[in-house]
Design brief:
- The strands form two sheets. Strands 1, 3, 8, 9, 10, 12, 13 and 14 form an eight-stranded antiparallel sheet that branches.
- A hairpin with a 5-residue loop joins strand 5 (78-81) and strand 6 (87-89).
- The protein is built from ten helices and 14 strands.
- The protein is rod-shaped and about 180 Å long.
- The chain is an alpha+beta fold and 446 residues long.
Length: 446
């Protein structure tokens, strides 16, 4: 709704400005014919412009003169050409015609500014700075110089303006770039609206219009052009507003989509945060479990090490026990009273008792092969059933027979002899028993 009412408001404002009697006179431009005698010339007081100056106007070329001069101050103090070819101050010139594309019948807004302390001379075309230069140090305006408008000093051929001039003003201050842009943006048809330094406007357009004229310089009513310009401007504004409205609609749609996407993203972020929190809790629990497992592993490792020590000790004890116990001489069963015979209870008892009578009698003797053969020769045991070959084992040979060794000697068969009852002692059986007990170095039966 707002966009549809703005153009109507501007049209209403334009109607008031153009038709108001108090604004009829300012819409008069000066037209300079295409001959060097058409100009305005007078001698203003340039004393107020010793520290700074700004000169602004609207200009339109109606033909193509060689040097379309807007104004010239005698002695080359100040020069402005409509095509930008000579833009000068204190006889120093900038050639800016390559930066201005002049089209006959079109209005252009031009400004030249200068400030004494910075020595900066600038030139603007249609609100845009297109050139600048630095003036000589200490140089100021000549206070009594002659100003010529529409020609380079008056009656100089090929230097006529041959066009229309409007709202030419001299300011005793340096206008800023923003000031110049504001003037241009306000436009041709509202000359006073863009002025923000009215007290510094010392050479005024309304005064210039009343100066005496040379040659063919006439007033031109540009109200019709203003109507056309305003209509064109209003059309442009309307088009821009429509484009802006369309862009706003698209932007609103994009914002709506973005808002939905943001909402979805926010929801996803919340879910992700919840998952992260749960994962964090799970990680904490897992870490605690790992710590407990680590502690358990350490304790288990210590227990294993202790068990290993105990096992090694047990193995050593078992090894020592096996080395000192259960050494049987299976060769005794090759004697005639046992070979190919089935072991009886009586024979089992004889095996256990075979050492009882003689063992204690041989305590204190060092066991040697000769001594074993001697005892075996004089042994009165029937049919040589006593297993003298047991003394040839590493446990007895070469050692002095003590009571402990005697007990081992007499008790070697205690647990085993009863288990042999009923076994027929053939040579294969004897070899098998000998192999098994020697291979394991122990007998684990009870």
């Amino acid at each position: 709704m707002i966009f549809s009412t703005i153009p109507l408001f501007l049209i209403f404002l334009f109607h008031i400005v153009v038709t108001s009697p108090s604004h009829q006179e300012p819409y008069k431009a000066l037209r300079f014919s295409e001959d060097p005698s058409s100009f305005i010339q007078f001698t203003p007081d340039f004393t107020p412009f010793q520290q700074a100056i700004s000169v602004c106007c609207w200009v339109k070329e109606n033909s193509s003169p060689t040097y379309p001069t807007i104004l010239y101050v005698s002695g080359g103090e100040l020069t402005m050409l409509a095509d930008g070819d000579y833009i000068g101050l204190f006889n120093r010139y900038m050639h800016l015609d390559s930066k201005i594309s002049v089209i006959r019948g079109r209005w252009y807004h031009q400004c030249a500014t200068w400030e004494y302390s910075t020595r900066s001379h600038k030139f603007y075309n249609n609100g845009v700075l297109i050139g600048s230069q630095t003036t000589r140090a200490g140089r100021r305006f000549t206070t009594s110089a002659t100003l010529t408008i529409g020609n380079w000093g008056g009656n100089v051929g090929s230097h006529e303006l041959a066009g229309d001039l409007y709202d030419l003003n001299f300011y005793a201050t340096e206008l800023s770039g923003e000031d110049v842009r504001r003037m241009y943006n306000i436009g041709l048809c509202q000359p006073g609206a863009g002025r923000h330094h009215e007290q510094a406007r010392l050479i005024r357009w309304e005064d210039i219009q009343r100066k005496s004229r040379s040659g063919n310089v006439i007033d031109v009513d540009i109200s019709g052009e203003c109507v056309s310009l305003l209509r064109q401007r209003l059309a442009n504004i309307t088009r821009q507003l429509d484009e802006t409205q369309a862009e706003l609609s698209e932007t609103n749609e994009a914002l709506s989509e973005t808002s939905e996407a943001l909402s979805e993203t926010q929801a996803a972020l919340i879910e992700t945060q919840q998952e992260l929190n749960e994962s964090q809790e799970a990680l904490i629990e897992t870490q605690q479990a790992l710590n407990e497992t680590q502690e358990f592993l350490v304790e288990t490792q210590e227990a294993l090490e202790q068990n290993e020590v105990h096992l090694n000790q047990s193995l050593e004890e078992l090894s020592r026990y096996n080395q000192s116990h259960n050494k049987w001489d299976w060769g005794l069963f090759k004697a005639p009273q046992y070979l190919n015979q089935t072991i009886s209870l009586e024979q089992s008892q004889n095996i256990r008792d075979s050492w009882d009578e003689v063992a204690n009698k041989i305590i204190g003797f060092r066991i040697t092969p000769e001594l074993v053969r001697f005892w075996q020769a004089v042994d009165c045991e029937a049919e040589n059933s006593r297993p003298w070959s047991m003394l040839q084992s590493d446990e007895f040979m070469g050692k002095i027979l003590t009571r402990d060794l005697v007990r081992k000697l007499s008790g070697a068969w205690d647990r085993l002899s009863d288990k042999l009852v009923g076994v027929r002692m053939t040579e294969p059986v004897i070899e098998l028993l000998s192999y098994v007990t020697n291979a394991t170095n122990c007998y684990c039966g009870n």
